[in-house]
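User:
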Amino acid sequence: MPRTAAPILSSPSTTPSSSPSPIPRVADPDRRRTSASVVLRSVLEHGPVARSTIARLTGLSPASVTGHCARLAGLGLIREAAAPRPSGGVGRPHVPVDLDDSRLVVGGVHVAVPYTTVALLDLRGRVVAHREIPHSGPADPYDVLDRAAGTLAALLGERPGVRPLGVGFAAGGWVDRASGAVVEHPLLGWREVPVREVLEARTGLPVHVDGHARALVNAERLFGRARGSRSVLHLFVGNVVDAAFATNDEVHHGPRSQAGAIAHLPVPGGTERCACGRTGCLQAELSERTLCRRARAAGVIGGWNPRHVVRAARDGDATAVRLLTERARTTGRAVGLLLDVLNPETVVVTEIGVLSREDCLGALRAAVGDGRAASVVPSGFPDSVLAVAGGSAALDVLYRDPLGVPSGVSPEVI
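Assistant: Predicted structure:
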């Protein structure tokens, strides 16, 4: 599918030197993009919502809101709601606007150690289709990406008329958003994999790449449990353990997107040997591989799927319950340390026990401490976290720059 450039914004006429403008005209396109983002996010949060209400909520002029709504409707992002609302006085009734979530989707690709998740998400971050592709043997990056692109094409082919805006890719390890590459993922054996380049060539769609903890922090801010929070910490605990921090609507990336690497934080009393040669590193202690190895040794499960540990706990296996609550407790100690360092308003935790069981959430919060426990919440996407991680890498870009949506993309599948 060919990429189409974003609509070109015309430059305003140059102000004569005798009457200089206090605001440089070159800033107008950036201001316009920022205002469009504010309007679209207001519709996401409050829709169906009247244009006059958007103006009041955002501080933009009614004329500006009307203009942005027309542009966003032209791009297929919003539409007028079916039923007008009374204006409360004389004159025409208000016609509210809402997201148009019926036609536009983004693709999502998340690469975990055992499998790849491929999904389609609508504009509200809801998963409308997904598939898991198990990795058979070593996860060759080019084979994994090729299979993901083929699966994405299949999902789109099952939904004629749906228009894909782009693809988001997320993974653990060291992922550089700017270059679109997985710099290093030791558990997968990936180094300097040009993900964006490969997926764009295979799909013909714009591809946005980020680490899964950062992608999920953006998802929580847009669609999840961190809406309205001024600062958010997200802790991801799977086979990879990493974190992301956002403040004032910006996620901290650091040089070459290395921020959030907490795998080797020491865990007091830890006993697991880490690949780095030390004992008690956070990822070695909390990895799902460690959980499953301990569960196998105790006879709880026979394979390497952490969901089976959760299932055994649900079926009343006391050892499975103990393993999950101990893991949640150790996760809580890590959260307490990060709270001391960063002091975020909200902490979101993605960890399989905490997402599944109240006793695990209780153990986590008890380890954090009563004074701060209320600020710690489980992910808002318990049944779709990996699919949402992939798609959110693209949705975050959309909500930051909705005017960058390609305006002439064919609805045919890739």
